[in-house]
């Protein structure tokens, strides 16, 4: 990156179009910053705000501090949520939600029972 900036400034100093070249380089720099820094961050922020606005009671979430909990209630006026973390009810700002855990990624009891049955059958075969 340092070599690239030296090349750009050397070209401008060597008479790379004079004032027009400097203005052109400035416009290219602004366009680069917009398309590779500002725009992706804005898209990410819009997606996060959409996720926060779609929160509902019963959603399992991970908060910014790493706490895994289930939403117990939502206060739209104060923009807060009350989460249930193993029987402890805590109030947080909606912004404190990092991600919503989808329902399909949760472990299902049927799956664990099947794996336990297969382990029992393997131990019987070993004997």
TrEMBL record:
Transmembrane portions of the chain: 6-36
Major place of residence: membrane
Origin superkingdom: Bacteria
Membrane topology category: Single-pass membrane protein
InterPro entries according to UniProt: Preprotein_translocase_YajC (IPR003849)
Keywords attached to this entry: Cell membrane, Membrane, Protein transport, Translocation, Transmembrane, Transmembrane helix, Transport
A single cellular component GO annotation: plasma membrane
Biased composition range(s): Basic and acidic residues: 105-127
Region of interest (Disordered), residue spans: 103-127
BP GO terms, sorted: protein transport
Cellular compartment(s): Cell membrane
Family of this protein: Belongs to the YajC family.
Name this protein carries in UniProt: Preprotein translocase subunit YajC
């Amino acid at each position: 990156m340092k070599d690239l900036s030296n090349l750009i400034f050397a070209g401008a100093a060597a008479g790379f179009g004079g004032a027009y070249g400097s203005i052109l380089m400035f416009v290219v720099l602004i366009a680069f910053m917009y398309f590779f820094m500002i725009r992706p961050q804005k898209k990410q922020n819009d997606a996060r705000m959409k996720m926060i606005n779609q929160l509902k009671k019963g959603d399992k979430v991970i908060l910014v501090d790493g706490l895994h909990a289930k939403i117990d209630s939502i206060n739209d006026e104060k923009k807060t949520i009350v989460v249930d973390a193993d029987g402890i009810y805590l109030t947080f700002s909606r912004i404190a939600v990092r991600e919503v855990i989808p329902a399909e990624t949760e472990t299902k009891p049927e799956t664990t029972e099947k794996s336990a049955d297969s382990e029992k059958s393997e131990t019987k075969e070993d004997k």
